[in-house]
């Protein structure tokens, strides 16, 4: 058995298959959330594709996002959108629900979610 501590979070959660399940479970929740839906315009399939690429890279997998779009710079990319603390928490709630629905649990999932909490905090750019 491989030493899990030497594997990336991407590998530890199950790689592309888990990222695919997570993104496909997460976005219907986002699109159903009245706080979040105003932020999402355009082709949902393209939004999901970018999220898969970002999460893959974010968790230590292949650098898919940077290869196509350059440095992630997520805060800068999201500045045109009013991301309030309420919206940050709504995004995290949708993600947590998606984790639970696909049964992404345990210490590795907790580490992944903790990193997402940091990202959500950084993304807030507008007061309530």
TrEMBL record:
UniProt KW keywords: Heme, Iron, Metal-binding, Transport
InterPro entries in the cross-refs: GlbO/GLB3-like, Globin-like_sf, Globin/Proto, Hemoglobin_trunc
MF terms in GO: heme binding; metal ion binding; oxygen binding; oxygen carrier activity
Domain of life, source organism: Bacteria
Keyword Metal-binding tagged: yes
Record keyword Repeat present: no
PANTHER family in the record: TWO-ON-TWO HEMOGLOBIN-3
Family: Belongs to the truncated hemoglobin family. Group II subfamily.
Listed name of the protein: Globin
Native source species: Fredinandcohnia quinoae
